[in-house]
Amino acid sequence: xxxxxxxxxRRGLPLSDISTFLxxxxxxxxxxxxxxFNLAFTPHFATTQTLAINLTQVAVVMVVGVGMTLVxxxxxxxxxxxxxxxxxxxxxxxxxxxxxxxVPNLYVGIxxxxxxxxxxxxxxxxxxxxxxxxxxxxPIIATLVLFIAGRGIAQVWTNGDLQVxxxxxxxxxxxxxxxxxxxxxxxxxxxxxxxxxxxxKTVFGRQVLAIGGNEAAxxxxxxxxxxxxxxxxxxxGLCSGIAGIIVIAMNSAADANLIGLGVELxxxxxxxxxxxxxxxxxxxxxxxxxxxxxxxxxxxxxLANGVPDSAALIVKAGLIILAVWLQRQDRA
Amino acid sequence: MTxxxxxxxxxxxxxxxxxLGVVLLLLALVAFGGWRYDGFLGxxxxxxxxxxxxxxxxxxxxMCFVxxxxxxxxxxxxxxxxxxVVSAILSPYGLLxxxxxxxxxxxxxxxxxxxxxxxxxxxxxxATLAVMLAASGTALLLAGNQSVSVSxxxxxxxxxxxDLLAPLKPEWIDAEDAxxxxxxxxxxxxxxxxxxxxxxxxxxxxIVMRWRAFGRHVLAVGGGEEAALLMGLPVGxxxxxxxxxxxxxxxxxxxxxxxxxxxxxxxxxAGWELFxxxxxxxxxxxxxxxxxxxxxTLVGSxxxxxxxxxxxxxxxxxxISLSAYWQSVVRGAFLLVVVMVQASFVKNTRN
Lengths: 332, 351
Hints:
- The structure holds 2 protein chains of 2 kinds.
- Helix content of chain A is 72%, strand content 3%.
- By secondary structure, chain A is mainly alpha-helical.
- In chain A, helix 2 packs across helix 12 (285-304) and helix 3 (81-96) runs parallel beside helix 5 (139-158).
- Chain B is mainly α.
- Chain B has 14 helices and 4 strands.
- In chain B, the strands form 2 sheets. Chain B has a two-stranded parallel ribbon. A two-stranded antiparallel ribbon of chain B has the order 2-3.
- Chain B is globular.
- Classes of the chains: A mainly alpha, B mainly alpha.
- At the A-B interface, helix 5, helix 11 and helix 13 of A face helix 5, helix 12 and helix 14 of B.
């Protein structure tokens, strides 16, 4: 299939063509319709409580989704994100409670307990990138290795035990608020803005899209393909690490068996619904955010109106197929 | 994902040396286990490994067909779970309704995969991911979020726990002076029913791949879809068929799961797809499609099952205390070694 020339964001709305309009803005329209539906039918929807619940739930998927968007933009995939979340999440309490090495004071411990696990997750991301670029192993298989082994590593460290901790200073990450908005939502916002800027304005962002569009052509054009591809997996690993820290701060406990379980599917779904091409070459971080919000809001809508969680899964499946099918129409 | 690479692989079955490599590895592991552990080669252990491995072997067989066309089926685990729930619900009506129900619901899920992939032109990865979600949602709905007990009144349980030839077993085999033939023959008569089912499926699979046009179509589609289209091969039908096969086998594995554990398990199949992919990869089949071996996939799934057993024995002996968590680390490391060896092999043959 021919690579699509890179599209610059158009400014005006192509109102002349309704189907083009739907494809470009369909996700946003769906989100708007969902919100309107909820305002009309779901009791207690328009409360700050509801907003906070939905935003905090979406933050974890979204932080992972940013890394996933970059990976998918290069034409790859990262199945290991959930396991890397578990690794970072299991490691963090071991550090700030002083189990691994003595920490001089609580704040230094917390700082190390945030920075080191995120770096470790980034290193595992580097390992993924190394396998993919050095041995030309397909991303789905290379990241499958850590998908299987990564959670095991976290479980071996913790012996599979639940680590409960009571460190309010650390839990501020998830529980604290700034201007009434939970702190983890701010973290998500910063990461989303930074990634959007990187993808749109930096050389690295152009290189990511160029590799996804046509790797051979990008190599011939002088793009350092190996380095850029490795870096996106490192970024995905770092994002997973941050998400892992957020999850344990939310639960005030770390359970290596459960942290990030199935998150790779949610992240991939958000990327797909958001309009990033799964074959690479075109990516939108804001689209992923909209995708994650849609998926979260659909689930919330169904649950709030008494539909069981299992039925919500079926709806989610239909949604993914619909979104990707619409995406395909755009390419055809 | 890689459209250029697929043209490089010749459309043929893998024989020497990759296929031989895994067989040797399997034999080496069996020899190691027999040397190190008492009872490792005893009929009890061998038969229980076979009984347990047959579910994974069935799922891996379907996955092998799918991967040979260059696709992937992430839905097999939750389709198996759905199959186990449906067959458990139908088990009070007897063996056949339980069996048919599980297989048919698997086939239906496979057909949806196939239709979405061929008609809507959606990447297999995404289509099967969606069906994975939908199947596990349906299984949870049908089962009411808990496991469904299987009826013990009917013959359904023999599908998982029975031994097909046991009623035919002559009495002299168990006698003291039965001679050297008694051992192997005894194993034959004690061969568990699920292992017979898996064996039959693999024999059918080999026949289809070697001697039927469909097998060549599968390899041709995986080797280069556009080329296969230009040659006038029924590409769409072939792709639809492999997902139908994969779904049906996953449903069948679910039936065996329900019959073996006495309950339909809506959440059991999580991670099976990765086990199946690993078996296929360990068997030397390339994920880009166009090449593959059914027999090597069987060997691959036995290998992974054997590693699991060896770890259990190692635990039982108390030499090292390998928690259950180590097993996934070891399994991941094993997959890593295999894909790295495979990758360097592919590189060398290209150069």
